[in-house]
# Entry
Amino acid sequence: MIALTSPYLWYTTRATGLVTLALFALVVSLGTLVANRAGGTAVGRFELNELHRTIAAVAIAFLAIHIVTTVMDSFVSTGPLAAVVPFISSYKRLPVALGTIALDLMVAVWISSLLKARIANRSWRFIHWFSWLAYAIALVHALMTGTDARHGVGLAIVIACLAVVAGAGAWRVLARPTRAAGRTALSPLGAEPDARRAERATDPTPVAPSSRETPSRENAPSGPGPDDAPFPRRRQPPRRR
# Structure
């Protein structure tokens, strides 16, 4: 049986921490693409949305492994309660507390995504903004907790994740298309955009009726027709010569 002070737990904690950091960088970046309603013929908005959801689920799984192995390792006295309540860990209180805060924010965003159909759209969007704050705190947690994120490959991963997330944030602010205004991040198959609907509602140009539309009774020409006679017209027999 593997002891609770085995180095394998510590190695697993360090590896899953870096993998989780990279996966959540992809999640935040893909969320930006979905929010801006990006997509084309090769990769549509529906595919981007499903990829965003799938990678988010995988990132949550790696995050759970990272937390469980950290709590199980008796070399660091964090405790299971320190994983959800900040500032109670006796091991590196501030760095561990930052990781706890990032975890709580990510869980709030994840739960809001699961309950998106039952909460208000404005509330859902407000909670989803916490993902940016959670990722920034997670980066600081990675730099302060261990030594992997400050040297070698770990530092390169942290810098790459920071560059990807910062680039996605700048693109969302500076290159947000008009069709994304007022839309939510998880509605790639929505109907007409709000901006186009508002423009059509305020357009004074009358819309010509379609040629396929049949006239209603109010617009029909007045006067008796063949079907409006009081008695049905009898068919006259042919005259004999």
Q: What stands out?
A: The first helix runs from residue 7 to 35. Residues 182-195 have pLDDT under 50 and may be disordered.
